[in-house]
Amino acid sequence: MLEAWWNDIVKWFSSYDGRVTIGAVVPVIAILVAGVVATLIARGSIKRLIAQQDREHKASAIAALIASGRRAAGWNTLSAAEKDHVDHQTSEAEVRVRLLPVAGAGLAADWAAHQLATMKANSANYSFQAEQDLADFQDGLIAWQAKPARARKLFAQDLAAWKYEAAAPPVDDLASKQQAWNAAQHSDDKAATTTVLPTA
Asked: Domain count of the chain?
């Protein structure tokens, strides 16, 4: 039975109707396959092009932030006009970083803003500290460019630590409040013990 079925198929392929049908179907299948392959190749090329453009935009935004960091490290030596120009460039670079289609772009911009503010503050008194802050700033942004997910966790930890430090009262302020409270308690105790007793 199977042999008869196979023989019928072979006869049909060798017949005129079979040859006409195969001659019409094979080109259609070949065109469809070629279209699918061309679509896949075009899609892959477009994805690579978009990924390359994203990398270029990311590198450009990070380079702009690092340039702002270099200027912030020498903040105390800049004139008022230069400071305004650097602030303008810094805000543009932060916005460019926030708009990047990369995980943790907002965290990176917040972290960079805090680091830049710290460098500006340290540039007046501690030139070595400002240089160290600049090196940490560059290393952090370059690490974020190379491995966004890993650097995003580090940025989140740093931001949480800075938020906690900002919320906690300074140690000196706390100590001065404690000393004032102790002095007030001591003066209250002393006033209570030195009350004059009525004479008999």
From this structure: 1
